[in-house]
Amino acid sequence: MTTDIFALLRDEGRHHTAQVTAPGADWLASAAAYPRSTLSLWETRPTAPVVLPCGTVFDVVNVPSIFGRRMLDRLWEDGPGSGPVAEHRGRMLLFTAPGTAHRLPSLLAWEEWGDAVPPLLCHGVGDAVTIPPLTPSPAGGPRWLVAPDTRQPWLPGPEVLLWACVRAVRSASAADVRISIFPPADQDAKVYDVSKRR
What we know:
- The protein has helices at 5-10, 22-29, 35-44, 65-77, 100-110, 158-176, and strands at residues 50-53, 59-64, 85-88, 91-96, 121-123, 128-131, 143-146.
- The protein has one domain (15-174).
- It has six helices and seven strands.
- Strands 5-2-4-3-7 form a five-stranded antiparallel beta sheet. Strands 1-6 form a two-stranded antiparallel ribbon.
- The chain is an alpha+beta fold.
- Helix 4 crosses helix 6 (158-176) and helix 5 (100-110) packs across helix 6 (158-176).
- The protein is globular and about 45 Å long.
């Protein structure tokens, strides 16, 4: 089965939760140094993106969009689902359990999948990320694919993301590899009809 990358990119509604809910906004704001100020900003400007720190409420694993779509497919079709997911500048931001940013790269290296997985940017303690606005901006910019909708959303840990990375690599490899029991034909070879030999 081959993967149609363009179909994955057009598939806007498949993993989409409509908008951030009030409990989801509370959860996001809890990562800020001043949660009430963040909520006030969103009340006056719901289309404003905000930069929030990682490491206490959530970590973020930042992957190329096409690979991220493959990971989401694996998480939703074969696994436990995902936590909140955003898209920004051609990359997908997967919100994960705190500590994932530190642990996931070492798990990939230990399992020797590091070279097969495209570059992951893991944002944890000391990092900050741009959070999409609560309401999508007509001008574009960062947007939610799976918006936070509860005060305590489920967040995948490093083992779940390792599993999703491995499955995404395998599904991409299976789509690209065609197996044949015959060696490739040599274009300059002479062909003899041996069916009439005794």
